[in-house]
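in:
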């Protein structure tokens, strides 16, 4: 049975017309959830349909461990200057996109593009695959969220301390002044002023799917 056959009617709808989903819509408020902050949205960007299909396949594969109301996709084919951290509401199809940095080991020459993935300790590279967003803690980067790698390509994520955190080098003004974001040590680093929104949109128990298609 295909991913499309197994998907819910709503998720089947996401795959129609090439699977394009545009950023620029706020996620609807879930029952009992706090309102998401009203912040300026990034310019609309279509999500690669093949990347969407792979993410939905991962959601089906790991579904017993994940909440399935929304998910996040990181499109590492896009440069760091573009919003490529996509938060998708699976009920409505609405999505919001934010900037996110990749690891220095994935881009040694600091070109703004991810060139390779690694799951190795000490690589300082980003990893590909499905991640389970876990608990929050306060560490050297301030408030952060642990990630558990669910695939062989990222199953060292917890041991490598690959997390979601805020960083000055992932702020939007880096794009206007330097044309790209700075690099992390493999973490999903987002802008300091957008961290609270990212945490609220993601939340514990949901999936981040990262890949380059």
């Amino acid at each position: 049975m295909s991913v499309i056959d197994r998907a819910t009617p709503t998720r089947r709808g996401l795959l129609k017309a090439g699977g394009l989903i545009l950023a620029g819509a706020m996620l609807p408020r879930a029952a009992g959830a706090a309102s998401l902050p009203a912040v300026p949205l990034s310019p609309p960007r279509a999500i690669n349909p093949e990347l969407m299909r792979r993410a939905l396949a991962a959601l089906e594969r790991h579904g017993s461990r994940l909440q399935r109301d929304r998910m996040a996709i990181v499109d590492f084919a896009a440069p760091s200057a573009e919003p490529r951290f996509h938060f998708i509401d699976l009920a409505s199809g609405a999505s919001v996109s934010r900037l996110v940095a990749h690891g220095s080991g994935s881009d040694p020459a600091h070109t703004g593009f991810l060139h390779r993935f690694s799951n190795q300790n000490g690589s300082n590279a980003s990893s590909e695959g499905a991640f389970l967003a876990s608990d929050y803690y306060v560490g050297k980067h301030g408030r952060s969220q642990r990630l558990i790698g669910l695939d062989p390509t990222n199953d060292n994520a917890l041991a490598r301390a690959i997390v979601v955190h805020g960083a000055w080098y992932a702020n939007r003004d880096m794009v206007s002044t330097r044309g790209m974001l700075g690099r992390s040590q493999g973490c999903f680093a987002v802008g300091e002023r957008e961290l609270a929104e990212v945490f609220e949109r993601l939340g514990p128990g949901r999936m981040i799917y990262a890949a380059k298609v």
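note: The CA atoms of residues 146 and 161 lie 7 Å apart.
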